[in-house]
Amino acid sequence: MRVKLQPAFILHSRPYRDSSQILDVLTAEYGRITMVVKGSRRRQRGGSTAAILQPFIPLLLSFSGRSEMKTVTASEVAGSPRTPGGARLFSGLYLNELLVRLLHRHDPHAELFLAYGNALEALKNEEAVGEVLRRFEFTLLRELGFGFELSSDGRSGQAICTDLMYRFDSEYGLVLADRAVAAGNPVFAGGDLLAMAAGEWGEPVKRTAKRLLRQALAGHLGDAPLKSRDLFRRV
To answer: Which domain holds residue 40?
Structure first.
């Protein structure tokens, strides 16, 4: 397998042996791939290759190999860095961690790649963090086959009603909240759900969206806590 100049973002990197790196990479056409960059941390004239092999930088990577782990043969910067500033950096790390935890290797999602790049650009440009993250989470769930409708009951097919309450069901999505079943479980106002579907992000809607997406993602993330959330709480 030989691939030339594939659009890519690095999600995570770690040192390997004396001067190399192992990268977790999101590519436009080949999905998430593990790659090794030999000698990338070795000092060279003009600096090391590792300087550009960093998260949040749009790259063009050439790579080859028959095994699960590919070898980077060439790399170049494809655009200005999209590194989120200040506390927004933790939101970028959160996106990366979601992709590493949930996206299977060699499973291409062109729309997800585009959504990720757009989310980084929005964070860098200081757009509302909550809206950026929720839009990406919705896209991620849909691309992984776990998407759900915000405007209709996933079990009955009936339209969501503004004055009724709903709960999230891992099989059906949003369903009408029966009082007995909903006791002790998160419930969501139909009006907030319809506002989310229409892209209307008032403060109550933002809180509803955060609770809903956290519950929807939890079943796929498992019990291990997200490291990016833990880092954010520590600062």
So the answer is: 2-77
